[in-house]
Amino acid sequence: MQTRSRITMADVAREAGVSTATVSFVLNNTKAVTPAVQARVEAAVQALGYRPSHAAQALRTGRSLALGLIIPDLTNPFFPKLAQDIEQEARTRGYAVLLADSHDDPALQQEHLGTLAQRGVDVLLVVPAVGTDDTLTADVPLIAIDRAAGDTPLVHSDKRQGGQIAAQHLLDLGHREFAVLAGPSRHGGVGERVRGMLGTLERAGVPVRKGRIYESDYSLLAGREGARHLLQTAPGFTALLAANDTLALGALSALTEAGITVPGQVSLVGFDDIPWSALSAPSLTTVRQDTRQMARQAIELALQTVNAPQVAPLPVGTTLTVRGSTAPVTTPGPLPPGPLPDPGHRPLENA
Amino acid sequence: MQTRSRITMADVAREAGVSTATVSFVLNNTKAVTPAVQARVEAAVQALGYRPSHAAQALRTGRSLALGLIIPDLTNPFFPKLAQDIEQEARTRGYAVLLADSHDDPALQQEHLGTLAQRGVDVLLVVPAVGTDDTLTADVPLIAIDRAAGDTPLVHSDKRQGGQIAAQHLLDLGHREFAVLAGPSRHGGVGERVRGMLGTLERAGVPVRKGRIYESDYSLLAGREGARHLLQTAPGFTALLAANDTLALGALSALTEAGITVPGQVSLVGFDDIPWSALSAPSLTTVRQDTRQMARQAIELALQTVNAPQVAPLPVGTTLTVRGSTAPVTTPGPLPPGPLPDPGHRPLENA
DNA sequence: TTGAAAGCGTTACCAT
DNA sequence: ATGGTAACGCTTTCAA
Q1: For the region Disordered, what residue ranges are annotated (chains A, B) (predicted)?
Q2: Which residues of B touch A101 (CB under 8 A)?
Q3: Strand C lies under 7 A from the Cβ of residue B119
């Protein structure tokens, strides 16, 4: 069936009794054409089952109608959702997505940047790998998503705001003893989310001391280890803020294992609202990022960039999803009074 | 910087003082060339920073060195891992991956099949959407992964075997009262995994009755609902087999919520060994699929198919990862004697 | 061993 | 309103 050689525009032209130019015109309605001719051409296209050659189009126009997407780790549940949304959004605009996974490795990311660019993608969307040195470059326009990289145009949600509402939620519940699972440090500091959290807490008069901040990667395992570590070296916190849901869920498993009840003894807030977060026990209070909106902005910006200079979009807002992992600090269990309202704080021992 | 127009092979040829043909020959070492010339060409390539135009190559050779990958749902944690492995495996062979998500919708899948084929991918790898009617077709060679679709060449792990070892594990622990979360029914029946489970149980003399088999999709939510449903309508089982980890983890949350201890009162086994399974509480005993191996086979088969007729590879083996969610039936809690060794079975009531 | 030149299937300019 | 035709950048046959 599919062994017969390709049907070309010339075939269609012949069948319709017109020139290839005319066929091209009607196909792309790039120039006015008599209704009669139009109909003949369309009929011919139908009859022959003509499909334009993408390669030829790309060669001729210099546009591949493909975009590259470089993700740090498809195994981190936040990214599949993002990738899904980007793919969908791209498709509705006629773009296909070339996917690459950098495994959070800047070197591999660099390789991807090169190969995808050479492959002729019109634009590259990249969620920069964690160790990315500030200069992200390629031979095609670049858009950063979610994480900043130098002055690459960035589409992201307002993570600082997200961190703020997470912290504020816990403050509102009366918590005063905080610990933080910070994820990896970026640019020699802590990420925006955590910055938002810490800033809010400081302004509220309950700064988090260094020993209560655990830096690591974003993995489930890191969440476990981080929670264990915090429990051992700096117990007494009643609220735990995690830089993402993966960390939070890892922490949840460690806490539970250590016999700490959530939210009874420790309230826990995550970030991202990945699917699992709704179904953990307890379900996870978390900051939701609007991946759909991010995807839309990214594609928008990308396509603009392909044609004209771009305008940086506003950060996407985040919202707090309050679920079962957070509770007022006045719940059964040792109640360490906040340092401000009440001195004489007594650490919470595991059990 | 990148505004200067493309460096073509002609530029290189001129710089090296040779013809484009020669340049092509050295670049693809497709024909013998004098070392001297070779060196000159290479130098010119370096000097000019020449990058071949992929579009031109594709047009000329009819090969895009790209493959399409259609995934049913990137949000299901099993697939990102598979996609990652496929992308990696493809890349090492010089292939790029065009990703599409069918959202488990046959219609959308069909659309993808069309667009990707027209986009000129050399071959399409597809994990068929659940409702896929048996005839999966496209204008390019097709490889099915993980799920069968008509007589499309299939790469998959031996799911029946996986189901067998899962069931056998529970039998070995002494369980006799089984329930099954079966996932969606395919081709008017239950999937291979479940078939493997049920077959094994039947052969052991402990057939599972209809009311103990819950069909649904593969989601976390379905796992929850399924477990709840089974608990209400057909309590008394001590062992629960799930068609995948997502279902199992959903079930775990429902069981826990219902006050049923795992593995104390009910042993639970999943399928896939997704990352979360190691970190749930309790951790999940599950059947691991070797995605790496599947990816390798798929790419191998795909590339063969692009050139010559293919030979179907053997199903990839699965292995059981025993973790914390399974225990001998002789654990604290009501002990329903197996029907064969011991009649007079007493159902387990929740609590 | 190297080069000239004919395409691959489109698009788009320039005529008509 | 249409058609002829020259590119687009590469591979590959055929000659030299």
Answers
A1: 323-351
A2: 84, 87-88
A3: no
